[in-house]
Write a structure and sequence with these properties.
The chain is built from 5 helices and 9 strands, in the order ββαββααααβββββ. With 199 residues, it is α+β, with helices and mostly antiparallel strands.
């Protein structure tokens, strides 16, 4: 169990390290999705992706999570795993509310089998009043509290899709009007070298 901290008068469980450790369970494998259209794509997770998935770049007033040449995303991830960066640190940010839904639902990324549908050829022009999100695919599902959980994927320029960002939303804002395809199967392929360097 994580410790309980106070944030602006309300209690929050310190889950930053917990969700980071849960995220490491996705390492060392490729996840192969087969769609009803016979399209197949491969997804891979790495330590460096956690920073943007969690939205830590939004916390501009928390020096520990600001990217730089000496503070790369994978190094920040290592410090979260090691407890040098905690929920107490990021909870003090005046921008924390922007990422709190991600933290609350982040562990559901690990339950990849529950994503039964995917948006193909995501069209950002259908979005209104938001920044452009460039993605090839969007895995999505509804959470137990009826939030729409959207995991955006983009090609690495080779043979894999990499997770770009994770955006929970109260409505179907990111999925409405998009081309939705059913997922037929999900296969896990372990890497030959299962050990993933954290920095």
């Amino acid at each position: 169990m994580g410790r309980i901290v106070l944030y602006r008068g309300r209690k929050l469980m310190d889950r930053l390290m917990e969700v980071a450790r849960e995220y490491t369970k996705l390492f060392g494998k490729d996840y192969i999705y087969t769609l009803e259209t016979d399209v197949i794509f491969r997804v891979s997770f790495m330590p460096m992706f956690f920073h943007h998935l969690m939205g830590l770049q939004k916390l501009k007033d928390v020096p520990q999570v600001l990217k730089s040449s000496k503070n790369r995303p994978a190094y920040i991830f290592r410090n979260i795993i090691g407890g040098q960066i905690t929920l107490d640190d990021i909870g003090k940010s005046r921008f924390f509310d922007e990422i709190e839904p991600r933290l609350r639902h982040f562990s559901q990324i690990n339950r990849l089998i529950e994503f039964e549908k995917v948006i193909v050829n995501f069209d950002p022009s259908l979005l209104v009043r938001t920044r452009v999100v460039n993605a090839d695919y969007v895995l999505f599902k509804k959470s137990n509290d009826n939030m729409f959980l959207n995991l955006f994927l983009k090609s690495d320029g080779q043979d894999k899709q990499i997770p770009m960002t994770f955006l929970p939303h109260l409505t179907d804002y990111y999925t409405y009007g998009q081309k939705v395809v059913k997922i037929i199967s999900l296969t896990e392929i372990p890497h030959k070298n299962k050990r993933v360097k954290l920095w």
